[in-house]
UniProtKB/TrEMBL annotation:
DUF418 domain residues: 6-53
Protein source organism: Sinosporangium album
Keywords for the protein's UniProt record, in alphabetical order: Membrane, Transmembrane, Transmembrane helix
Keyword Transmembrane helix (UniProt): yes
Annotated transmembrane regions: 14-32
Name of the protein this chain belongs to: DUF418 domain-containing protein
Amino acid sequence: MGYAATILRLAHRLTWLALAAAIYLIQLRLSLWRTANHRYGPIEWLLRKATYGPRHRPTPTTQ
């Protein structure tokens, strides 16, 4: 293989690496926002709604 093919393969790998890093950073940012603004995570919230029903209000925590 020539130099161009090697460079293209490397560029392709770097593109996927950059995409994976961008997705990770977006997920990290959303996770930090979610934990700062909500008491429960999304799956725990769904399980609580399914278990207790829509009218259940959790008791406030003391700090």
